[in-house]
Amino acid sequence: MLRTAAAVVFGAILVSSRPTSAQVIGPSVCNNYSCIQPGMPNYGIAQGSIFVIAGSDNMAQSSASQGVPLQTTLAGVAITVSVGAVTTQAIPYFVSPSQITAILPSKTPIGQGTVTVSSGGESVSASITVVPSAFGLATVSPSGPGGPWAAAVAQDQGEGGQLLGQANAANPGEYLTLWGSGLGPVSGDETQYQTPENLTSIPIEVDIGGVSATVPYHGRSVYPGLDQINVIVPAGVSGCNVSLVVSAGGVPSNFGTIPVAASGRICVDPGVVPVTADEYQSLLGLGDVNVGVISLETLAAGTVTGDSAYATFQQYSAQQFASVGFLQVPSAGSCLVTAGPWQPPLMGSSAFGQLSAGAQINIAGPDGPLALPQFGESGSYLEPTGTSPPILPPTGGAFTFNDGSGGPGVGTFRFGSGDSLTTPLLWTNDSAIAAVERAKGQPVTWSGGAPGSYVYIFGYSPLYQYSPLAGGSTTRVGFTCSALLSAGQFTVPAAALESLPAAENGYFYVANGVLQRFSAPGLDLGLLFFGAGTGISVPFN
Question: Considering just the CA atoms, what is the radius of gyration of the chain in Å?
């Protein structure tokens, strides 16, 4: 039991955790760590878990927090939960006018109910769905709170409980400690420090890089509502963005990533990101790390072809670069779930500096020229909406790139790239997929593709929500997976698909991705991405 390590995560209990997957007007209730929203198939507030009420601005007259031992009221705020004929009193950790963080008592019945916040003679109510288990994994997002990319808060017991990072990757066979809330109910007084107990009656599975891991312990930490999971990193997985998901009681959690190295402590993603361990080590030794990415992607679904082109140049502190990973590409064999359709490679927006490369990035390819104008005075360059033909033909071809006379952050560059995606990827079983059966996982097969490249598989389904105050809104919830081209096949796991809502009008894509290196004055690392693939419209059952 790592009590001092638990204190690290306990401090994050009070970090703001607001609904992010859809527009919410009025109070909304979600798990403190995942904040999965109502309407999602894995939504629910587990008995004994830490949850958040947010979206109103009159729930308390002031802000206050408390530590263990906990009182059932805080700063004049009381929280009750009614399910059927039973009412319990939630135990607050933190209260403010716009957010409440509290423990749902384990004795609260399962079912649909109402949570009511009372303060100063006024009350605010919201709907709540109480379930036996719905784990929220503690994560840190380089995109900020609610961002689409999240690194799991994982500690290496063999390294004295150090948090994992790009320069402190886990190795197969090592014991890790994970944190979160929602494994399930416990007995005893939940206002006091807890006696850790393995909740063996609650079935649990932890998948790391798509491989089921051994779980020696899963249960409460010493802190009320805060759960601890000890897990052994399975053999055969490695990468800087290895996926991690916890299924408790058959319900998948939010997804996170961890870095895993086959040996040593520097993670790499061979076949996906063209950076060696020695190069990473050199970059990690810099005070600041300047990174640039240029991305071209063309995706065809039926008669519709979508085109995407952007460039971004950012500066990271050494700590940022080492802790969360700069490039948002799942490691080979991994899948991630995000709010909204998302494809790699994106860069974390936690960079503390934007690097200007001048007024625009100029691209010349087989289908003609394209200029990416600068977005404001930032380091981002975006393709003008609806102004260009597809710049990346299915057969690839030669391209040249330049930034004119350059800018104050990135100097003048001009380089070419030939033979990009000249061998098209063929999705060989697309015609056999009449519907995606989410509970079974979805196999994908392919042939062709650029030698030495990787395949990224992604899809999404819409979630429609309606509120009398906000009206209707639709959010597209998506998954993204990576696999080495040489594998020829991949199965999108059920845990990823079951995190998406069932829908008649979902989309499923299979594409070839190539990341190459380029150099530019002022950059420590430059990466050029080409992506091309096809998609289908398909029901998610």
Answer: 24
Which tens digit of pLDDT belongs to each residue from 332-356?
999 999 876 566 676 666 667 899 9
The per-residue pLDDT for 73 is 97
Residue 23 predicted with pLDDT over 90: no
| Equal fold, 3-131 vs 136-189+197-260 | yes
DSSP type of residue 374: B
Rounded Cα distance between 251 and 132, Å, is: 10
Closest to 30 measured CA to CA, from 134, 124, 123: 134
What are the distances in angstroms from CA 147 to CA 153, 202, 350? 15, 30, 10
Taking the domains of the chain in order of start, what are their residue ranges? 3-131, 136-189+197-260, 277-533
Please state, in angstroms and rounded to a whole number, the distance separating the CA atoms of residues 496 and 441.
8
Fold of the CATH domain 3-131: Immunoglobulin-like (2.60.40)
β-strand pairing of 525-540 with 288-301: parallel
The pLDDT of residue 323 = 66
At 338, list the tokens.
């995000």
Cβ pair 222, 159 in contact under 8 A: no
Q: Are 89 and 110 in contact (CB under 8 A)?
A: no
Which two structure tokens, joined as six digits, stand for 526? 């430059």
Each residue of 153-186: b (16+ CB within 10 Å) or e? bbbbeeeeeebbbbbbbbbbebbbbbbbbbbbbb
Q: Is the pTM higher than 0.90?
A: yes
Single-letter amino acid, residue 30: C
Please say whether the beta carbons of 505 and 472 come within 8 A: no
Q: What is the CATH number of domain 136-189+197-260?
A: 2.60.40
Whether 88 shows a pLDDT value over 70: the answer reads yes
